[in-house]
Amino acid sequence: MRKSITFIGLLLFASLVTASDFVVNGILYKVISPTEVQVTKREEPFSGVVQIPASVMHDSLSYTVSEIGEKAFFSSTGITEVRLPHTLKKIGDNAFSLCFSLKRITIPESVEHIGAEAFSSCGGSDTLYIPAAVTYIGQNAFGAMKRLKWIEVAPANLSYTTVDGVLFNRSQTEIVSFPAGREGHYDIPATLTRIADGLFNNAKLTSVNIPYGVVSIGKYAFHYCQKLESVDIPPSVFFIEEQAFSFCTSLREVAIPESVKSIEKEAFFNCTSLTAVDIPASISVVNERTFSYCTSLERVVIQSATVRVIDKLAFSYCTKLKELTLPSTVVHVGHGAFYPCKELTTIRVHHVVPLKLNGYVFSEVDKGRCKVLVPANSVQQYREAIEWKEFKHFVPMNYRFTLSFSQPENGTLQLLNDSTPVQDGAEFSQSTLFKLSLHCDEGYDFDKLIINGVNFDFWVHEFLLMDNTKIEVKLKPVQVPRRERFSNPLLSYFDTGKCFETLREKYQR
Questions:
Q1: Are 126 and 147 spatial neighbours (Cβ–Cβ below 8 Å)?
Q2: Distance between terminal CA atoms of the chain?
């Protein structure tokens, strides 16, 4: 009998919650329990001073106001002040975001939860106080508040703390919120391993030092930092995510270390002061619009190694771009990648066979003025290739490239050029042929061959140098007595011709 009564009570309350949203003094409330209500979003935006009471009456019942719901005051650009009640426990996601005219924010001592982007892009004051009861603060809760210069946390708070006015979690392994109104230089603490999405969005910083140990720079991390002139990226960073530095219009230079494996789309979009970029050999894809609208960019060097794809519009509207290098590892250039780079005067292309272009790659480039430097024996092929043939000046080049290699543990790698041993770091002409031999110590056998970061599980007897190249070999321990190296009949398949063509085909996939 008790279960039936309980079930009926739950049904009655469910119908109450769905049917009893109500308005008091222009504020829309939603019943969330028999005694509590939430301020919820209404169609008309608020303006002026908004006073939210501690309790409201409806149908002769009294309710405690305990929550500000998701987007309750979202984009109410006319609000100048909100007075929150002492009964409030939760401020929902985006509750006051985009309230540009909001000048004063006082968080009551009763608040426990502040949602993601709750006050993002608000006007606010230059200081903010986080009470002791707060146990959760969502991502970018106070992001892009341009007036905010200092965040203070109650000493009794067990979840958060501040260091020099910057909001951290209690263990100081994460910056929860950075005051966007703070100016000058900032040294990110060495306790961080990741720069969170949107962390410095709209900040007024002029320079930032990122410590070694940070492995990724999140989405929109420095978005719209218009005063940011320089940033030091350490060789521990693997990932630079989408729009990480977009609209950093004062950023003049950035050194991308070899550790970076991925730069996502629009990462440096509209960095209008950036003058030169070296894409490291660790990058395999230059994503779409990564450097689009970098209108001061004059030089781009794409280092040879694993760079294989330049996606559509990657350097579009880089209207001052003058020099470009395309290594032979690039197998795809997307639509409009260099449109409309009208100032482009020199393109260095390392491809012996002309790279196929995918429509309007160099649209509006002055092809009557721009010089295309190509391998000496390939000039005629370029004059006949689709899109390349529109250029008028091809310059034959005897390119020379560096061959680097390292010795494996428990073995010896040797490279020969016409029976002459090759030294690590030596320079040779393009298309030079090398023979490779490997000796393994007792108890070890071949595992993988690594050429410019690409793994091959078969051995290569000969190698043709097409660009700057680094070769590594990995060995593995074996439990059976070591046989003579290369006695495996499967390896005999890779004769001089087949071996190189097989390697080349696999490398370009």
A1: yes
A2: 70
Provide the token pair at 358. Answer: 């995918």
Decide if 405 is inside a domain: yes
pTM: 0.81
> For residue 239, what are the contacts with CB-CB under 8 A and spacing of at least 6?
215, 216, 217, 260, 261, 262, 264
Decide the pairing of beta strands 183-187 and 166-169. Answer: unpaired
Q: Are 279 and 257 in contact (CB under 8 A)?
A: no
Tracing tokens 């590892």 back to the chain, one arrives at 329
Domain count for the chain? 2
Give the domain extent around 140: 15-180
> Which pair of tokens denotes residue 340?
């409309």
Domain boundary among 180, 198, 229: 180
CA 222 to chain centre: 10
The residues near 95 (Cβ < 8 Å, ≥ 6 apart) are: 68, 69, 70, 71, 72, 73, 74, 115, 118, 119
* CATH number, domain containing residue 131: 3.80.10.10
Which CATH number does the domain housing residue 439 bear? 2.60.40
Q: Model confidence over 330-366: pLDDT tens digits?
A: 999 999 999 999 999 999 999 999 999 877 899 999 9
Chain centroid to CA 164: 27
> Given the DSSP bridges, would you call strands 262-263 and 239-240 parallel, antiparallel or unpaired?
parallel
